[in-house]
TrEMBL record:
Keywords (A to Z) from UniProt: Carotenoid biosynthesis, Oxidoreductase
Record's keyword annotation contains Oxidoreductase: yes
Stored InterPro entries: Amino_oxidase, Carotenoid/retinoid_OxRdtase, FAD/NAD-bd_sf
Signal peptide: none
Keyword Kinase appears in the UniProt entry: no
GO MF term (any one): oxidoreductase activity
Pfam families given in the database record: Amino_oxidase
One BP term from GO: carotenoid biosynthetic process
Occurrences of domain Amine oxidase (ranges): 17-507
Protein name (Swiss-Prot/TrEMBL): Phytoene dehydrogenase
Biochemical pathway: Carotenoid biosynthesis
């Protein structure tokens, strides 16, 4: 007999964490129903389709393919049963804005552009990448190899013993096994200090730190442990699932359907009520009954808006005191013709990117010299745009909670497109045939995210591992949480694992 046979579970929200937990719980025999407030499944991994253009609205980097392989293997399947992957080359392109006096690359080297500043392609060829590093700083090629070896060690040990194995209490860390596995991990200090121990050139430091945007942090507030992301980047590679990230959402939904999960869209849950050992979930279309509830809605929203105060684990002061990942200003653009110098993934970084991080975390304001990301999937996938056109989006990380009225969006849109033309040589301004925008207030309204954060709780030292909110509700028996605010944290792979960890808590309590 299956361990959860006869139990009914409602999963609120259909992000990667909710979809993952639904699969594990259904596989354990539960009757699982996923209810989603928006018009499509996927949570922040929504898809925007307009006039023949298709955009991934949220995550667009397919990293850590081993996590997806492990997830599908848990159900005797593989990712290729559902979608094909293409290894991107280059992984991504970086445009550094105006070169400073600190830059000393050879003007004849192929990654240098005297017109638009430095341009670097990070490719699957590690030896070529080492040569690029060497051009910036003598000895940096071999240093990169040493850095990546440490990153690989942190990744392998960290994933096995501290990511897939949840440790929600302090006492879970106070044993010899944990101490032995943690030996040598980069646990102390910030990413800024860790990278500075290896590289002097500011451009190289930026290359090694850009992955922090996936964790919602800055070099100064993210623990050095997350140097493991460089193993993800340089060694495991950057991939593209055919059809975009939306096809990965479809794959997990299809898997869930095969396991017996039911899905309902356009039905927001407005209140969670306990009822004689079970739950009654209020919705505009009438109540839903369940024995158990897993909330993939943002943790703060679940606590502050869906639960009565006696059932809340944290008060308003707790949520106000947290450090949140950035929000984002997004432009989804359909343009005539090609996108010139842009790669599938392109980063545009200022000389002083510390100022941009300060304008997110220290002195919140619209960045005056932004660092930003451009995704042009039409460079890889011709199906995402009509013939003769390109699809892309531009993402500028900004502080959550900023005012984003129409006038501000209009003004900043011009700032970004001007900057893109100036520093990459790709001028889109006269070729745009479709334009949609998404910003702070949209994250708040569409995803119920606190202050319009795009990702949730940042990965600061005080918000990592056991310092993130737990999967089990402290105030309500039978209520569980899943997603980026819980362990192991932010990002599609981490949310997939979060679904497994949450399901394991349900099984421990109710199997």
């Amino acid at each position: 007999m299956q361990p959860l046979a006869g139990e009914s579970v409602v999963v609120i929200g259909s992000g990667f964490g909710g979809l993952s937990s639904a699969c594990y719980l259904a596989d354990a025999g539960a009757d699982v129903r996923v209810v989603e407030k928006n018009e499509q499944l996927g949570g922040r991994a929504s898809v925007l389709e307009r006039d023949g253009f298709r955009f991934d609205m949220g995550p667009s980097w397919y990293l850590m393919p081993d996590v997806f392989e492990r997830f599908f293997a848990d159900f005797d399947r593989t990712p290729t049963d559902y979608y094909d992957l293409e290894h991107l080359d280059p992984h991504y392109r970086i445009f550094f804005k105006e070169s400073s006096e600190l830059d000393s690359v050879d003007p004849a080297s192929e990654h240098h552009s005297s017109v638009h500043g430095d341009r670097v392609d990070i490719t699957p060829d590690l030896e070529r990448t080492k040569e690029i590093f060497e051009e910036y700083e003598a000895g940096a090629g071999e240093t990169l190899e040493r850095y990546l070896e440490k990153s690989r060690e942190n990744y392998e040990v960290g994933m096995e013993h501290f990511v897939y194995e949840d440790r929600p209490r302090l006492r879970d860390y106070l044993d010899l096994d944990v101490a032995r596995n943690a030996r040598g991990l980069s646990l102390i200090g910030s990413m800024q200090g860790h990278v500075e121990d290896y590289f002097d050139h500011p451009r190289l430091q930026q290359i090694m730190q850009y992955t922090l945007v996936f964790l919602g942090g800055s070099p100064s507030n993210t623990p050095a442990l997350y140097n493991l992301m460089s193993h993800v980047d340089f060694n495991l590679g950057v991939w593209y699932p055919e059809g975009g990230i939306g096809s990965v959402v479809d794959a997990i939904v299809d898997l869930g359907t095969e396991l017996g999960v039911e899905y309902e869209i356009g039905r927001p849950v407005t209140e969670i009520k306990g009822r004689e050992g079970a739950f009654l979930l209020e919705t505009p279309d009438g109540p839903i009954e369940a024995d158990l509830v897993v909330s993939n809605a943002d943790y703060a929203h679940t606590e502050q808006e869906l639960l009565p105060s006696p059932g809340q684990s944290y008060d308003a002061d707790y949520w106000e005191s947290r450090t949140y990942a950035p929000s984002a200003f997004l432009l989804y653009l359909g343009v005539e013709g090609t996108v010139g110098e842009l790669a599938h993934h392109t980063l545009v970084l200022p000389s002083d990117w510390d100022r941009h991080f300060d304008q997110i975390f220290e002195d919140p304001q619209w960045p005056d010299d932004p660092a930003y990301y451009v995704c042009a999937p039409s460079e890889t996938d011709e199906t995402v745009a009509p013939e003769g056109h390109s699809a892309l989006f531009v993402l500028v990380p900004i502080a959550p909670g900023l005012e984003d009225d129409t006038g501000t969006r209009d003004q900043y849109r011009d700032v970004v497109l001007d900057d893109l033309a100036r520093h990459t040589g790709t001028d889109l301004r006269d070729r745009i045939v479709l334009e949609e925008r998404f910003c702070v207030s949209d994250f708040a309204s569409r995803y119920n995210s606190y202050d319009g954060t795009a990702l949730g709780l940042a990965h600061t030292l005080r918000q990592t591992a056991l310092f993130r909110p737990p999967h089990r509700s402290k105030g309500v028996d039978g209520l569980y949480h899943v997603g980026g605010d819980t362990t192991p944290g932010i990002g599609m792979p981490m949310c997939l694992i979060s679904g497994e960890l949450t399901a394991s808590k349900v099984l421990e309590d109710h199997a």
